[in-house]
Write a structure and sequence with these properties.
Mean pLDDT: 90
Strand order of the largest sheet: 2-1-3-8-7-4-5-6
Low-confidence stretches: 55-60
Number of strands: 8
Bound molecules: manganese (II) ion
Strand content: 15-25%
Structural class: alpha/beta
Order of helices and strands: EHHEHEHEEHEHHEHEH
Number of domains: 1
Distance between the termini: 32 Å
């Protein structure tokens, strides 16, 4: 099934949706993230059917406006992802995981970007490679160009990195205490040039997003993540974004998949070309 709003032919598309049904970097006993991309497409379809019946509409956009812009490339092999993104140079890739190690393959195609990274984990382990916890260390990215939001379960090795490097790591507590606007002002001071945005769904509290490989209690709320995402997409020159780690096996009433679709639509409609 294709993403229901993706009606644009490839050459006319501004956004290209790419599913990567791969969980080879997953080390959690909670598996199933390889089924994430198709679960997102299925729920997007169900939400659209609701809307057509006229009984419910939660999509805060004139869908007609962006229907023209999205192309669903389908699912691709993780090993081929870099090549696919390279070929789609003038498009905005939206990658759906799969486990978070897939993000490293995307970032490699955008070596000079600042990475804004929503995750319960820092993703900067260097003792392992090709792993969902070594996303940023698997790339050549300078830690000074990484901003992490929602981190609440770093490993000792990662804490050392955070202290040693100039990486801006924003905890959940900081978001709750200072509020999104104040934290976003701090982010703005750091960002230079183009931005890549990655969202691991485990940044949300497991109450809202139970269907992830590695849930961590004490996460962020919809009304914290979404305003951040809106600000990022409207203020910065975003070259691509992703939504990772949906594991339908652990979802409840498709709660996490609905959240992922809502997030995806908010990303698309709030993107502003620079
Ligand atoms: Mn992650």
């Amino acid at each position: 099934m294709k993403f229901v709003y993706a009606s644009a032919p490839l050459q006319d598309a501004e956004f290209v949706l790419i599913g990567v049904p791969d969980e080879s970097g997953n080390r959690s006993p909670r598996t199933g993230s390889k089924r994430g991309p198709d679960a997102i497409r299925k729920v997007a379809y169900e939400r659209c059917v609701f809307k057509k019946k006229g009984t419910f509409s939660s999509t805060p956009v004139d869908s007609g406006k962006f229907v023209q812009k999205i192309h669903d490339y389908g699912n691709v092999d993780k090993k081929k992802l870099g090549k696919v993104i390279e070929v789609l140079k003038d498009k905005i890739p939206i990658v759906l995981g799969g486990d978070h190690s897939i993000t490293a393959e995307v970032i490699k195609q955008f070596p000079d970007v600042t990475v804004i990274y929503f995750d319960a984990h820092p993703g900067i382990l260097s003792s392992l490679q090709g792993y969902y916890g070594s996303v940023l260390t698997d790339t050549e990215i300078n830690f000074g160009k990484c901003i992490q939001i929602g981190v609440r379960e770093p490993e000792i090795e990662e804490l050392k990195h955070i202290k040693k490097e100039v990486l801006l790591s924003i905890s959940v507590e900081e978001v709750y205490e200072k509020g999104v606007s104040a934290v976003f002002k701090e982010i703005k001071k750091v960002v230079q040039g183009k931005v890549y945005l990655s969202v691991d769904l485990n940044v949300f509290d497991p109450a809202f997003a139970p269907g992830v490989s590695t849930p961590v209690p004490g996460g962020l709320h919809y009304h914290q993540v979404i305003p951040f995402v809106k600000n990022i997409l409207s203020e910065f020159d975003v070259v691509g974004f992703d939504i990772m780690e949906l594991s339908p096996s652990y979802d409840q009433d498709q709660r996490t998949a609905h959240l992922a679709v809502k997030l995806l639509l908010e990303m698309i409609v709030n993107y502003k070309k620079k």
